[in-house]
Every structure is written in C-alpha cells, then in structure tokens.
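Example record for the data management plan.
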Amino acid sequence: MMEGAGPGQTKSLTQAMHLAWLAFVQNGDPNHSGMPHWSTFEAAHEVMRFDTESRVEPGLLDNESALWSSIGISKLSDLERAFAYTPAGVH
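Corresponding structural encoding:
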C-alpha cells in the first residue's frame, strides 16, 4: 500500500480519508464524491481499502465473522453493547 507513492498521491489519499471522516461525523455516512460508494457494513459486509486508488473489498473473512458470531456479536450494535461502560453508581 502506498509504496513508492509520490507527494500528490499521498495528499490525495489523505484528503479522501479526511473527507470520509468529516462526512461520517456530520451525517453518519462516510461516502463523498472523492471515493467509490461504500455500503454500510451491516448491509454488504464490505470495507474500504484506502490507497492511491481506493476500492471497496469484501469485509471480514468467514472464520473471523464466525468467531464474533460465536460470542453473540452479529451486528455493530451488539459490539457496542458488549463494550459499553457505565461507571459505578450511574444507571
């Protein structure tokens, strides 16, 4: 990834990632005009490979997905609940 990339390519990648984060923070969707369309993970199990030419790729491998499912985590909301932290005395 990015091996031998010139300054222009590095800047382009940085900008694409920056805009994805900004879009995500603003509306919960990282998509913007400077990158390929990226479906929600729960809908398509795809991940974005940010590179000199960013692309959408298949998400978790079957055995990784099976591991998460084996402990009861099949959706992002399950993962958020599993790692939720409530300080003592707060309900």
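Summary line stored alongside the record: The first strand starts at residue 46 and ends at 49.
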